[in-house]
Amino acid sequence: MRVEKQALVKAVNRVATAARHTAHDSPLMGEIKDDKLWMWYPNFDVSVWLSIPIENGDGNPLTFSVPLEMIVKILNSFSTEMVSLTTDSAGELIIKAGKNRVKIPKYEGFFDRIDPIPDGILVATINDFSPLSSSLEDALKFVAKTEEKPSLSCVNLSFHSGLIDITASDSFHAYGHSIPVSGMWSGDFLLPIRSVETLIKVLPKANIALYQTSNGYSLFRHQENLAVWIAPFNGSYPDILSLMKDGGQSMLRCSRTTLGDALKIGAILSANNVLKLEQRDDSVYVSFPRNVTDSDVYLDGAIVEGALEPTHLSIPFLSHCLESVKGDELFLRRMKMGAIRITGPTPTPFTMLQIIKYSSTD
Fold first, then answer.
1. How far does CA 245 lie from the centroid of its chain?
2. For position 56, what pLDDT does the model report?
3. Does residue 261 register a pLDDT over 90?
4. In terms of CB atoms within 10 Å, which of 7, 10, 195, 290 comes out highest?
5. How would you label 106-115 residue by residue, b for 16+ Cβ within 10 Å and e otherwise?
6. Is 83 helix (H, G, I), strand (E, B) or coil?
7. What is the mean pLDDT of residues 326-330?
């Protein structure tokens, strides 16, 4: 069986990208079906199916199971346009490229055949996956990274009324975004961190269908030649969305550049990565508790729209918030729950971060 080397390399590298975001090692399975070479990476966390067309198939069956990283390195070593794949009597894969012939040992003790892609209930179709992919990438900044908060170490996708609400939080700062989709299914998916990283790296940016399979897994499918099957997060997600519905009271608005410049200065001068916002006459003054030097920093052009009480915020968390909202103008609102809500000119995406409690002398 002959196949275009570049197409095979691209497909195998895509699978390898998914594998690097899983917790367990698995083989790459291969099988000829319907004039295509199907490949499958089975794993407890994330499973990936994909196919590429073959050329000059001889009609003979071909099934292989090989170490993934080994075949990735070997295929990337060839410079020919085409390669041929066969197996010997022991089930070892033989790759020929020009005069080169390389044999890859069989990965023993796993599946004999590729499992079919699971069926499921259609949840939504996403013609343009780019906004959701970008939102998932932003959400990862806000996910809990420690085992102390396991219920928050995932991204929540909530489907309702033709929308996806993407939510992530570590309880110190939070991210929310609503994106329209085609489909009226209602329900939630909890995606572990590794699974989100896989979706961002592996899925194309168009024509994605999302299904829920019978065992609660989520299945993201691109047309007929790529599918990513994700194990559900084991746990329940806190009701963060209800907290996010508090629009808060207007506090101030300023340019992204001005606030970003203050954060850069604070990252250098602040000994504890904290900044303080307060009003001085008609200006917004920025100071840094436990500052290493005496400085005067203002948010030039900022407009106070309400009562601006002295407010302490984490510099790293505030940086995440700025990176994840859109627009040149930023709006800061104080919420009843003791947090600051930050948006651009549109209500979504939005971010929140907790106000740090300091004594009146700081």
1. 24
2. 59
3. yes
4. 195
5. bbeeeeeebe
6. strand
7. 95
